Amino acid sequence: MSEGALHRLIVTFDQAFRELGSEVSASKLEELAVFIHKAMTVQARHYHTLEHIFTFIEPGNPIQTLAGLFHDIVYYQVDLGFLPTIHRIIAPFIRQHKEGFAIALDAPDVPQFNLVLEAFGYQRGDGVSVTTGLNEFLSAVVMNVRLGDLVAQKDLLLMDLCIEATIPFRGPADDGKDCFLALEDRLRSINQRLNFGMTDQEIQDAIRLALRVANKDVSGFAEQNVAIFLSNTWRLLPEMNVPLRAGNVYTIREYREALQNMDAFFSLLDPQRVFHQYGGEPEQQEFKRMVERARRNIETARRYLHVKLLAQALLEALAMESGGDAPLSLFMGDTSADASAPRLEKHLPAIDNPSWVEPNSEFYHLLASGRTDNPGFDLNTSPLSLFIYKSLSPDEFKHAFDAAQEMFVGRISPAEFLRQLNPQVVSAVAQASAAMATTRSQSLQKYSR
Predict the structure, then answer these.
(1) CA dihedral sign, ordered 362, 368, 373, 378
(2) What is the chain's pLDDT, residue by residue, as a tens digit (449 residues)?
(3) Alpha-carbon distance 57 to 314, whole Å?
(4) Nearest in space to 121 (alpha carbons), one of 147, 140, 145
(5) Which residues 6+ apart lie within 8 Å of 413 measured at CB?
(6) Alpha carbon 303 to chain centroid, angstroms
(7) Burial class (CB within 10 angstroms; exposed 0-12, middle 13-18, buried 19+) of 175
């Protein structure tokens, strides 16, 4: 019989504390488990959930386990602020101003907080943002406050280093030094100042552990199955785009903007900065494989996003020409409905595969069979995108995609964008849209030939 999430948290905390030589009361175990459960199950969370943190649980490795349970406890941009229980803990240590956040100059001089400053290399008064480690820093603060009286200070520091290591997609430091070599230098300095008595081997082992935690946190980028990678990507969409949290009432433009945001993120992401090495770990051949998989997944995701963006551009133009932006479900159908419900793709003509389409390819499978799971706010298949992909030659697609970018920024009108597309494609999608968006049928019929 499988145990529930809350019970699993209780058992995990108990085992980790015992492995560290700490006896923690049953009431405290329950309190910590409930605290983590509440924070990780807020409505906005779709990827950074209990399921994600459970992947860090490793019996016999209590430092990784406890750091993993807390490493995403704060997620400012996803939770749209701080949960009340979180805010009460971090309020003495952080200040918010117009430019962002800064570590409080008058933050309490307590060991638990000072350890976080040491691990992250911060000082009171330093500015910190989402991109430079705000969530990770405050997650470590929460962990230290909650666990500071339950585990040894050295163990707490090692957990802090693991959380610091999860600040993602970092390149070399300002002095050109790799971030994990810089973390090693920092730990050596802390070890001397605080007299922890760590040997060189213990210091290197601590950094290796932090590295493993960091690489595990982004392990999805090395996923062999790109459909799984895209499913994880789709779980991030409602976390990073608030309108998509509103069931089936988000609009065509809001969905398109979410896709654009993800495409922009991938366009700036260097695959060489996803994973890290330290002290020969991972081994060079394995590291190269991880980086190449990340590169392949990012490239495939962008190609997939571009087809979906063009499909949305066509729907958006038709919507704007027939009455303005509208819920995507008005045109596409309700994503939560069963397979027998009305759907736009049921009104699209069947077409054979042209010469540029490889029906056995991974990319075709992604469009036709879909990602590995349904995120709830969207279909996991892409029937309209597949229709577009099969209908436009590579040259036609490039021209149409470029025109879509012009429309998105207002350089051309929706009507001009539609005039630049293959008229048969526009007509087919307009007819299907008219069958679905019955309140706009008359306006849409003028694009149906």
Answers:
(1) positive
(2) 357 999 999 999 999 999 999 999 999 999 999 999 999 998 788 889 999 999 999 999 999 999 999 999 999 999 889 999 999 999 999 999 988 999 999 999 999 999 999 999 999 999 999 999 999 999 999 999 999 999 999 999 999 999 999 999 998 877 888 999 999 999 999 999 999 999 999 999 999 999 999 999 999 999 999 999 999 998 889 888 888 887 778 999 999 999 999 999 999 999 999 999 999 999 999 999 999 999 999 999 999 999 999 999 999 999 999 999 999 999 998 876 566 788 999 999 999 999 999 999 999 999 998 877 766 667 777 899 999 999 999 999 999 999 999 999 999 999 999 999 999 999 999 999 999 999 999 999 999 87
(3) 45
(4) 140
(5) 407
(6) 18
(7) exposed
Which helix (H) or strand (E) segment holds residue 300: the answer is helix 284-321
Q: Check: CB of residue 13 under 8 Å from CB of residue 32.
A: yes
> In 3D, which of 67, 52, 59, 81 has the Cα closest to residue 11?
59
Give me the helices (H) in 121-271, please.
134-147, 153-164, 179-194, 200-217, 226-240, 252-268
Contact 440, 323 (CB under 8 A): yes
Give the CA radius of gyration of the chain.
25
CA distance 61 to 59: 5
Alpha helices, DSSP H, located in 322-361:
328-332
Q: What is the DSSP string of 4-56?
A: PHHHHHHHHHHHHHHHTT----HHHHHHHHHHHHHHHT-TT-SSSSHHHHHTT
Are the C-beta atoms of residues 399 and 420 closer than 8 Å to each other?
A: yes
**Do residues 161 and 187 touch, judged by C-beta distance below 8 A?**
yes
Cα(67)–Cα(316) distance, rounded to whole angstroms?
A: 44
- Pairwise CA distance, residues 344 & 239, whole Å: 27
SS3 (DSSP) at 169: coil
